[in-house]
Amino acid sequence: MAEPDYIDEENPELIRPQKLINPVKSSRNHQDLHRELLMNQKRGLAPQNKPELQKVMEKRKRDQVIKQQKEEEAQKKKSDLEIELMKRQQKLEQLELEKQKVQEEQENAPEFVKVKGNLRRTAQESAEAPDS
């Protein structure tokens, strides 16, 4: 590859190429903005250009935390009546579960156990009938 003629410094008549000036960088507004960004970066105040998805996810997380805090406050403010009602409701649910377990055990029991239980009941009923 041939070298250009202007590399030789022997010929003073040739015009040397110069780097073109970027009009955007040379503008006063651009220089001011660049200076401001550099100062903010040194201070740690760099603008945060987060993607939209990240902003939405952070907003949802904040909303969820706020909602959870409100629920906790509502639970703390329950009256004595509400607390008693909750306790009774839990007791009733436990009783229902126990009844269901007993019924399932009776259904799963062998046939001879069911017949034996029926015989005992009839024997107790017949024993009680003459007494009265």
From TrEMBL:
This is Protein FAM107B. Residues 1-12 have a biased composition (Acidic residues). It comes from the Eukaryota. Keywords: Coiled coil. Residues 1-80, 100-132 are annotated as: Disordered. It comes from Chelonia mydas. Residues 52-80 have a biased composition (Basic and acidic residues).
